[in-house]
Amino acid sequence: MAATTEEQVERVRALVAAIPPGRVATYGDIAAAAGLSSPRTVGWIMRTDSADLPWHRVLGASGRPAAHLATRQLRLLTEEGVPIIDGRVDLRTARL
C-alpha cells in the first residue's frame, strides 16, 4: 500500500471539517471525494489526526458507529438533530 501523503491527510481533514451540523458522511464518501482508494485510509487518518474535527459526523457505510464510540457519537449526533433509528443513523436523510 502506498504511503499516505500530507496532501491527502489535509484533503480528508478539510472534507470532514466541511460536514455541517446535522449531516453525516461515510468513510467511503470521504475517500471518494479525496481521491483515496480505500475508506480504511480515511479511518486511519481520523484515528490519528481528528481531535479538532467533527469526527462524530463520519460513519461506516452501515450508519452504525463503532462500538467503542457509539454512546458518545450517537449523543453528539442526536444533539445536532441527526435522525437515529435503533442505534443507526438514517443515512438516507442525514447523508451529505
How would you characterize the overall build of this protein?
The radius of gyration is 13 Å and the shape is globular. It has 96 residues and is mainly alpha-helical. It has one domain (6-94): Winged helix-like DNA-binding domain superfamily/Winged helix DNA-binding domain (Arc Repressor Mutant, subunit A, Orthogonal Bundle). α1 (6-17) packs across α2 and α2 (27-34) crosses α3 (39-48). The protein has 5 helices and 4 strands; from the N terminus they run αβααβαββα. The longest helix is centred in the N-terminal third of the chain and has 12 residues, at 6-17. GO terms for molecular function: methyltransferase activity. Keywords: DNA damage, Methyltransferase, Transferase. This is DNA methyltransferase. InterPro entries: ATL_DNA_repair (IPR052520), MethylDNA_cys_MeTrfase_DNA-bd (IPR014048), MethylDNA_cys_MeTrfase_DNAb (IPR036217), WH-like_DNA-bd_sf (IPR036388). Residues 10-82 form the Methylated-DNA-[protein]-cysteine S-methyltransferase DNA binding domain.
